[in-house]
Amino acid sequence: MGKGQPLGTGYFYANRQTAETNFVAALAQTEAAMEIFRAQNSGHLVMISSISAMRGMKKNLTTYAATKAGVAMLAEGLQVELQNSPIKVTTIFPGFIRSEINEKVKNTPPSWWTRKPAARLW
């Protein structure tokens, strides 16, 4: 979800909503899944981040990119912790995807976003 607005422009509520949807919800889902995986000593957690997590983004994308970086680091921490266990963690970094939510966006990200590796599996 990307309702974020430039920081310092009076839209804290929009940036908070983005952070809650993109990071806090992912944290809650990860917590629930990992509880099951740890109990059964197996599983494969797949986290969806974004190619925007790779670089700081400006204006409306600053909070979105930060939350996606948080998701990626949450997954990376689990990957390191679980590297010698039967529980696996995969992070997917999709590029820009045209959808109903953003169909009216005129300035879309550059095409190089979709040329980066889409996932990192450890």
Explain how this protein is built:
This protein has 122 residues and is an alpha+beta fold. It has helices at 12-40, 62-81; strands at 43-48, 87-92, 119-121. Strands 1-2-3 form a 3-stranded mixed β-sheet, covered by helices on one side. β1, α2 and β2 form a beta-alpha-beta unit. α1 runs parallel beside α2. The longest helix has 29 residues, at 12-40. It is elongated and about 45 Å long.
The overall average pLDDT, rounded, is 86
Tell me the strand percentage band. 5-15%
The strand line-up of the biggest sheet is 1-2-3
**Spatial separation of the terminal alpha carbons:** 27 Å
H and E order: HEHEE
Number of helical runs?
2
Helix content: 40-55%
Structural class: alpha+beta
Which residues form runs of ≥5 with pLDDT under 50?
none
Can you summarize the main beta sheet? 3 strands, mixed
Shape: elongated
Describe the structure concisely.
Helix content is 40%, strand content 12%. The chain is α+β, with helices and mostly antiparallel strands. Helix 1 (12-40) packs parallel to helix 2 (62-81).
Question: Keyphrases for this structure?
Answer:
122 residues, single chain, 3 strands, alpha+beta, three-stranded mixed sheet, 2 helices
